[in-house]
Design a protein that fits this description.
Length: about 40
């Protein structure tokens, strides 16, 4: 699973984003965008 905090940074270039999604699909990787989340390390 890949978790992205700010998807707008990733989607700036549509072709790159489309290729990335294809790679995720080939490797059965789920893609999640979590806006406004606070990640805390433990």
């Amino acid at each position: 699973m890949v978790v992205i905090y700010k998807i707008d940074r990733l989607r700036r270039r549509r072709m790159n984003f489309a290729r990335l999604v294809e790679v995720f699909d080939r490797h059965n990787v789920t893609f999640v965008s979590v806006p406004g989340a606070n990640f805390v390390e433990s």
